[in-house]
Amino acid sequence: MADMAYVNGSFMPLGEAMIPIEDRGFQFADGVYEVIVAYEGQPFLLDEHLARLQRSADGIVLGLNCSSLNLEGIIQEGIQRSGYDDVLVYVQITRGVTSRQHAVTTELTPSVVLTFKRKPIYEPQLRTEGVSLETTADIRWSHCSIKSIALLANIMIKNAAKHRGFFDAIILTDENEVLETSCANVFVIREGVLQTPPASDRILHGITRGFLLDVARKEGIANEECAVDLEMLLKSQEVFITSSSIDIFPVRSVDGITIGDGKPGPITRRLLSSFPKLK
Ligand code: PDD
To answer: CA 256, CA 173: separation in Å to the nearest integer?
Structure first.
């Protein structure tokens, strides 16, 4: 009896299983999963689990017909190979392996990984006496200031924007306040003042953002960290986005509405020259 894994077509002992570093599941949490229990070798509620797996795959636009994977057969074989009676089967499907970037620009082959372990045996008191719980706020996922690899929502935003012909999307609060894009911070210039949303838990505190605020302070460009609502942004003279990989990209339009005269403005161009290779 042994813990087993299945990785893209092959079974192996769990400890020998490996996936490439650039698997999107590893770098972006760009995938879906199921946990299924088998009692005495028989998967319990298998159809229901596979139907939810398909719904989850459709939900992240994986473009995958799970029935083409023969998961029932793989699960049966894995259970037998593990030799356990009661098995915890873990199924994970990620978008696949590609050079790291948020947007998916090529057709990928999803990675299919399963593990087969003995179902945990819990202390009998947990059922006879019950367990104690506490309450908490719903923090799922309200810590955008943590540079976490759980980027599935960002991926979905970026891919949907790309699909509709945009470079990216500005994420808004329910009150139409600007937060950031899927992978960059947002700046606007209104009446000569450089403005960017405050460094709250709702945005990543970009290193480039901080650098540019410092540059603005040193160069005497009026600047302010303040709430920026969509209406203000659309009336700005200049808008740009920032990140370590793009430095500054000027924004020429948002939702089809031209910003300023539709060309990179003077403050954006001045700030661009603070990057080593863009002087
Ligand atoms: N992303 N906001 C989000 C959601 C980001 O993912 C990033 C950067 C930024 C800008 O942060 P910085 O200036 O520190 O790069 C803002 C990186 C580049 C990425 O995931 O590829």
So the answer is: 20
